[in-house]
Structures are given as C-alpha cells and as structure tokens.
Amino acid sequence: YTGEAKMISTWSHGQDANRAGWLKLEAGGSSLDAVEAGARHTESDVTNRSVGIGGMPDREGHVTLDACIMDWESNCGSVGCLEGIAHPISVAKHIMQNTPHVMLVGAGAKKYALKNKFETIKTPLPEVKKEWEKWKKEQAEIAKKPAINHENHDTIGLLAIDSQGRISGACTTSGWAYKLPGRLGDSPIIGSGLFVDQEVGGAVATGLGESIIRISGSHAVVELMRQGKSPEQACKEIVERLIRKHKDMSGLQCAFIAINTKGEVGGFSVYNGFNYALKTANKDEMIDTPFDRKW
Ligand code: SD4
C-alpha cells in the first residue's frame, strides 16, 4: 500500500470518533483498533441519541444496542438487541476473536458480555426516559405501526485503512427510536450495515435500516467497487437502487460511505444534509456528500 492511513466516519460526531481512532493508527495500531476506538468514543457520548449510552429506547422503554465489526481478513463479529452494556462494538469484536460464531443477540449476547466482564450501564438515561414517557402518552392512541423518527439518525459507521493498507469497518447504533421490541436494523448485519473485502474495499450505511437490509446495501456497494466503480459512484448506484425499491421515499433518508484499497473514499445519500468526517495525517474535515434529492 503506497497511500496514507485514513479514516472516515458518518455524521459530524464522526470527527471526534476519527480523532479517537487516529490515536490508535498513530501509535502503530491496526485499522481494526482504530474503528473500534472510534466507535467506543461515540458509544460513550451521553449526548448522542442514536448510539450507546445516550440512545433512545424501543417503544417499551428498553435501549437495545446493535453493532458489528469486520476486518481485512473477512473476520467479523456482531451483537444485536444488547441491553445494558456500554460498548457493544467491543463485544462484537470479542465474539469475532474468541468464538466460532459471528453474531450473538439478546439474552445470549448479554450473558456473553457479562461473562467476559464488559462494562455495564443503566439505560435509558433519565432525560431520555422522560422523553420516552412523553412520547408514550402522545402515542397511546395511535401505536400500531412504529413511528419512524427521521430526526434520529446519528448512527456511526466507520471505515479505516492503515499504513499497511489493511481495511476495517465498524458500525454501532441504538437503532430507530421507539422501534418494536426485538427489532434489528441493518447495523448489526454483516453485508447490510457494513461490509469489508480486502480484495476491494469497504462500505458502511446509515439511515432507515429496513430499506438498507432490503438491498443488502453495504455488500452491494463493495460489489460495484469490485466491478471498477469509484467509492462515490458505487454508493450513488446503490442509493438509486434503494430508491427504486421504495414506492414512498418521503422522509426516507439513507446514506453510504465507502473506501477502496487505493485509499479513495466517497459517499452518497438520498437527501441532502448527510456528511461524513475524514481524517488523515494532515486532514481533519467534514465532507458533504452528493445526494439524489432535496428535503
Ligand atoms: C437502524 N441504520 O437501526 C440504523 C439507524 C441509523 O442513523 O442509521 N440511524 O436502522
């Protein structure tokens, strides 16, 4: 690999996550260490309502976390519907490195995390609980269909390439606010929320998970890059595919970011307003992606 080490992460909080990840890369750590450190940073952020400790609960008041991680050797690990554990991304990595499995969910994932002494947390935060109680009152009448809160899109997806050219990715979220209990989005699903193939590159997704699962989004982006598309072009074509599969796109925001083995990066979103953070040795900036349409 002749390019430079690089890290990209979704949304503006991606900038702090990148900085946390960069410390690992600077110290000679791998891209895997970097994406884990970045994800952990956001999971600890009490102000983020879509990830980790500050996450919004499901409709019954439980904050259930989803995360996955993948490295340059196609090792991958994932947790779904994990409650009360501070760093789902590290549990996902632990599963990847210490079990023959890829994915643990719910009670089994919790048992695994506790057995391996992962830090516990009490969720929802009191202020989040208040918001949920208010919502519950308002929704008491409606409530058959989960209300999708389109403001609630701060999931973090991270991709890094280290100085040896090794690519890793991570993704962590509390999912959509007020989801049905037990709901998993794209974020813990290898191939949907995240995919890495060292022959090609990696991609991560953010947005309405159901729509991303429907097209196996991140895997699809990587496959287009395999066919020679640039990261931006691949993300664009997959956003367009996603749009074709949905009759009603009102309020349905989704975005992908991607990196290839040359270290080229790009992204694309359905609506304007999506951005991602880029960090290199001498860059630390936000990039607005091109988009299909305006809100
Ligand atoms: C999900 N994709 O659970 C996540 C939500 C998200 O920014 O990305 N929010 O559907």
Automatic annotation (TrEMBL):
GO CC entries: cytoplasm
Molecular function terms from GO: asparaginase activity
Hydrolase listed as a keyword: yes
Pfam family, one: Asparaginase_2
Residue numbers marked as site, Cleavage: 154-155
Protein EC: 3.5.1.1
Keyword hit for Ubl conjugation: no
Active site, renumbered: 155 (nucleophile)
Keywords associated with the record: Hydrolase
Binding site for substrate: 183-186, 206-209
Family matches, as PANTHER family: L-ASPARAGINASE, N(4)-(BETA-N-ACETYLGLUCOSAMINYL)-L-ASPARAGINASE
Protein name per Swiss-Prot or TrEMBL: Asparaginase
Species of the source: Fluviicola taffensis (strain DSM 16823 / NCIMB 13979 / RW262)
